[in-house]
Write a structure and sequence with these properties.
The protein is an alpha/beta fold. The protein contains six helices and six strands. The chain has a single domain, classed as 3-Layer(aba) Sandwich (Dihydrofolate Reductase, subunit A), CATH 3.40.430.10. It has a six-stranded parallel sheet.
């Protein structure tokens, strides 16, 4: 079981024509009931996974607020390690366990900045994050369930990986 990968659950609000949003424009696709369902999913997940674009565009907390339960470990994929210090993720990293996953392309200054924060930094992959390798690392850390709340790029990667 130690070598198995975590179970991935995708959570996404989409329009009837399959869109998850509009470029450079925030649109509301979910209701209060949807938020409650998502927060219940979060509370039952060991970790929640998003990409840097989601953090930049939405500045989410990725915590459980509309349901009872524990906060999942927040995992942010950021190949270059450029997540902003004023993001809610970084501002709350003392209270909520957070992992930033970068690639070997990260600059020394960015790596040093992240390593000074109360977060776990995982360098995984040459020029972009190697998600297959990451899932094995997460499994070794005892993470069995991951809630994917990514945008189109990250969601597409997981669908393509599954179909290969």
């Amino acid at each position: 079981m130690a070598n198995s990968k975590p179970k991935i659950t995708l959570s996404a609000a989409i329009t009837l024509d399959g869109k998850i949003g509009q470029k450079n424009k925030h649109i509301v696709l979910s209701s209060k009931a949807d938020k409650i369902r998502v927060h219940k999913l979060r509370s039952k997940s060991d970790a929640i996974l998003v990409g840097k674009n989601t953090v930049e565009q939405d500045d989410p907390l990725l915590t459980v607020r509309y349901a009872k339960g524990k906060n999942p470990i927040r995992i942010i994929l950021d190949s270059h390690g450029t997540i902003k210090n004023n993001s809610k993720i970084i501002k709350t990293c003392k209270r909520v366990p957070t992992i930033i996953v970068t690639s070997e392309i990260i600059s020394k200054p960015n790596l040093n900045r992240l390593q000074k924060l109360p977060i776990d930094v995982i360098v995984c992959g040459k020029t972009q994050v190697n998600i297959t390798k990451l899932l094995s690392i997460l499994s070794k850390k005892g993470i069995k369930t991951v809630l994917l709340e990514g945008g189109g790029t990250l969601n597409r990667f997981f669908f393509e990986k599954k179909s290969n």
